Amino acid sequence: MTIENSSQAKVFGGWHKQYTHQSNVLNCAMKFAVYLPPQASKENPVPVIYWLSGLTCSDENFMQKAGAFKVAAELGVAIVAPDTSPRGEGVADDAEGAYDLGLGAGFYLNATQAPWDKHYHMYSYIVDELPALIEQHFPVTPAKSISGHSMGGHGALTIGLKNSEQYRSISAFSPITNPINCPWGQKAFSHYLGNNIEDWKAYDSVELLKHNKATLPILVDQGEDDGFLQEQLKPELLVAAAKASGSDMTLRMQPGYDHSYFFIQSFIEDHLRFHAQFLTA
Amino acid sequence: MTIENSSQAKVFGGWHKQYTHQSNVLNCAMKFAVYLPPQASKENPVPVIYWLSGLTCSDENFMQKAGAFKVAAELGVAIVAPDTSPRGEGVADDAEGAYDLGLGAGFYLNATQAPWDKHYHMYSYIVDELPALIEQHFPVTPAKSISGHSMGGHGALTIGLKNSEQYRSISAFSPITNPINCPWGQKAFSHYLGNNIEDWKAYDSVELLKHNKATLPILVDQGEDDGFLQEQLKPELLVAAAKASGSDMTLRMQPGYDHSYFFIQSFIEDHLRFHAQFLTA
């Protein structure tokens, strides 16, 4: 698996770099970004936090807007930010260019329905292909945690819960907690997975958590003035699911904050320190 | 002078807000953004750092990418980010849409040449109209400092040097130090100010600084791997000018850093703390 560097910039003594590569899982060329803290070297590999972004985002939104690098450099953790869907001319998209289906809206699942099933395999990309690529090409250890925002918070929770042996900890900002039960999720899942709701439950954090006690620590932050809170995000259902299974999850409701990167940058330090305590233990 | 709020988001306990207003100086509608730290109130007005952005930027680039709010909140300083040129359908632009002339490239001067002289008065906007507006509508003190990047570094230096009674301190990232002597400056100044180079010197930091001892402290950061360093920025000429007039200026050359916001976010904390020591004294 080869990768090609497309940009690099020094930041807080480390390096932000972007790469392109041919994805076997997604059947298209993909971009990702990595932040390597100053400590990272062949002699001193560092753990990795995978960041999954939300609807409409690429590898760039978190890296440009989250203000995460000062603390990542202090803690000596790398951050990897993939794109949010397969990309390119041959990749299916919503006919009307909707922001919540198709390009930029991969929902971190493996689609089973045409035309989506040809490329939309973000679940396997995040779980298998991308970490293998990162561990092949960069000075990192196998220690991994996973975090994300909104659709990416859904991705971080579902992937972390389903692959708990692979990660040390999970966190999310404003996650879509119960996609089988909200408009964004129902629209995407019906296209990607078909009409059998039983098939949807494998990608639903509330369903996963309520039936299985989580073995990883989980931190969730949610802004109380988030315009998507009641219709799309529903953190109270995640809390109930964690309680039902006796899982270790902390939900922090943050008064006055919305759904934007201004909210993420206000609390990203807490998430990095939360993950670092497990990654560097 | 009235202003209209167009967005607001809580960040690090304070508020990022965007506004539109009709500018009398620029003869068009303008946007600006303000960060108000949590301490700001009518009973406790706070000082202001004005941030001037570079070519192609709007009020948004710094606010989204600089990662400045955590420290601004700690220090209790407001930040105001104006746009970089007049805007709107009636505003002259380069015929070929060049990034370094016209919209997004106001160069913080008062144009004297048609068609630019109808709207391009960013100097008077930054020096007079905008601070009056800010002090009318927000819980701020008259204490001000000024900073900026690239074209905005040129703006911060020239405006600060020419209005030293109005500011407490000046800083810049990667400033265009000697526009009369580099391609970006020569192109813009010839269009905005005509062909008499004597008229250009009033907007040239090197010219201003070499003939007059600066009464304000000045901090400049410059990345050593900045692709514009030698042809456009020329910090060594600013150092020589400061030395010639016995002015107090610190230039820090930063190995490995480029011209991007990744560079700015790496050192913005130093600039905020530099200004705060004079603003809160």
Automatic annotation (TrEMBL), chains A, B:
Reaction(s) catalysed by this chain's protein: S-formylglutathione + H2O = formate + glutathione + H(+)
Stored InterPro entries: AB_hydrolase_fold, Esterase-like, S-formylglutathione_hydrol
Pfam families: Esterase (PF00756)
EC number: 3.1.2.12
Keywords: Hydrolase, Serine esterase
One Gene Ontology MF term: S-formylglutathione hydrolase activity
GO biological process: formaldehyde catabolic process
Active site positions, chain numbering: S150 (charge relay system), D226 (charge relay system), H259 (charge relay system)
Any GO CC annotation of this UniProt entry: cytosol
Domain of life per record: Bacteria
Family of the protein in this entry: Belongs to the esterase D family.
Function text: Serine hydrolase involved in the detoxification of formaldehyde.
Protein name per UniProt: S-formylglutathione hydrolase
Gene field: fghA
